[in-house]
Design goal:
Blueprint: H1 14-29, E1 35-44, E2 56-57, E3 59-72, E4 77-81, E5 90-93, H2 110-122, E6 131-137, H3 147-162, H4 176-193, H5 201-208, E7 213-218, E8 224-228, E9 236-242, H6 253-268, H7 281-288, H8 294-318, H9 326-345, H10 352-363, E10 368-372, E11 379-385, H11 389-403, E12 409-412, E13 420-421
Parallel strand pairs: 4-6
Antiparallel strand pairs: 1-3, 1-13, 2-7, 3-6, 4-5, 7-8, 9-11, 9-12, 10-11
Helix pairs in contact: 2-3, 2-4, 3-4, 3-5, 4-5, 6-8, 7-8, 8-9, 10-11
Length: about 425
């Protein structure tokens, strides 16, 4: 093993994020913003590809956030800038923008911010004001950590306040009902403005999580339960491994998995695959075996139904009041390991970089490890002893060197606060 230290991607402190976004706003727009709002990325502890199937997911909000300095305008113009685009400000009009594939299509990252205003207007909030906004984000791009949802949700809480919609409350005293409505608009932004057919787990995590907790999200009805997840108190940590493998949700692979699930549900005569109870799975798979694409439908269905069951079992473990150690910790690790194997074999959405990261983390002493996010690249997570974080990260980095992969990056996943106003 080499002595090169693994690289950890730092999270900007609230002060650093606020100051950076404000400075960029002043530089480009030569004015003061009305405020700075933020929204976190997320990592999913378990429950992958269950959201659009009406199942359960268990995300946490990350301390890595998108920061948005924003000022309300009195017209319908939107102007957006980031550190990468400071020489060319994106300018658009709320009266002319539209979904992907239409003449009013908004390109690239601007669709995630301007698109929220477009979506909110379709939800009944008519004639929203335009705005100038400067974005500074430390959520790793392409890492499967919901960098796009962080943009959407930072815009949602900012627009909510400057347009006086009264939905979000504050990060300290959130209005969960209002935030659930903002989630709907953010998901519509992702689906229609950006063209990515995702479910609502990412946006729910960014807007509805609580510090020190995981969020049990029922993706059928949007109900949530806050599950205690203070790993530091147990001497544990959740290590995020950003594989640096290309990650995209609009290249067709994600959509193909979703379409297969919808076809399986139709054949089985259910609205969503979450309607299939774990004890009824063998019979459901037998019914799918006669379809032309039976092998694909059987594997996709098996993953979804068993993943929902694994999520339910992990939530029960975390809620039983006992310390997360001994056999309880071992069982949590087994559930994470089984999740990854299901995603690798049945959902076929891992990649060599993800598999090597998971295998190396386990070999280095992780209690459990799995890919997280949509897959096909992105990130993996490992449940490790707090004093072993850097040793496990070094082992993963060494495995990447042996395989000839690009070096990974790492994050400390601390359950953080939801979207809100900084200043």
């Amino acid at each position: 093993m080499t002595n090169d230290a693994p690289v950890f991607a730092p999270a900007l402190s609230p002060k650093e994020g606020s100051e950076a976004a404000t400075a960029l706003f002043r530089e480009v727009f030569e004015a003061e913003p009305d405020g700075v709002w933020y929204a976190p990325g997320r990592v999913n502890v378990i429950g992958e590809h269950t959201d659009y199937n009406g199942g359960l997911a268990l995300p946490i909000a990350l301390p890595h956030r998108a920061h948005l300095a924003l000022r309300r305008r009195e017209d319908r113009v939107v102007r957006l800038v980031s550190p990468q685009t400071r020489e060319k400000v994106d300018v658009m009009d709320l009266d002319t923008i539209g979904p992907k594939g239409t003449p009013g299509e908004v390109e690239h990252w601007a669709s995630y911010i301007a698109g929220v205003a477009w979506s909110l207007e379709r939800d009944g909030f008519e004639n929203l004001p335009g705005f100038d906004a400067a974005l500074v984000s430390c959520v790793p791009l392409g890492g499967g950590l919901s960098s796009s949802a962080a943009l959407e949700c930072s815009a949602a809480v900012a627009i909510d306040e400057v347009a006086h919609l009264g939905l979000a409350g504050t990060a300290q005293e959130p209005d969960d009902t209002g935030r659930a409505r903002l989630v709907t608009s953010c998901v519509r932004t992702e689906n229609e403005m950006a063209g990515a057919p995702t479910g609502g787990m990412d946006q729910s995590a960014s807007l509805r999580c609580r510090e020190g907790h995981a969020l049990e999200l029922d993706c059928r009805d949007g109900s949530v339960t806050h599950v205690p997840f203070d790993l530091a108190a147990e001497g544990l940590a959740l290590l995020v491994i950003d594989t640096k493998a290309k990650h995209s949700l609009d290249d067709g692979q994600y959509g193909a998995r979703r379409a297969a699930c919808e076809r399986a549900a139709e054949i089985l005569g259910v609205e969503l695959l979450a309607d299939i109870a774990i004890e009824d799975l063998p019979g459901a798979l037998e019914r799918l075996s006669g379809a032309d694409d039976a092998d694909e439908l059987v594997k996709r269905t098996r993953h979804v139904v068993t993943e929902i069951d694994r999520t339910r079992r992990l939530v029960s473990l975390l809620q039983d009041g006992r310390p997360l150690r001994g056999e309880k910790l071992a069982e949590a690790g087994r559930l994470m390991d089984a999740s990854h194997e299901s995603l690798r074999v049945d959902y076929e959405c891992t990649c060599p970089e993800l598999d090597v990261a998971v295998e190396a983390a386990r070999a280095a002493g992780a209690h459990g490890a799995r890919m997280t996010g949509g897959g096909f690249g992105g990130s993996a997570i490992a449940l490790v002893d707090a004093d072993a974080v850097h040793a496990v990260a070094a082992a993963v980095a060494d495995a990447y060197r042996r395989e000839g992969f690009n070096p990974p990056a790492f994050l400390d996943a601390v359950p953080a606060a939801p979207a809100g106003r900084l200043v």
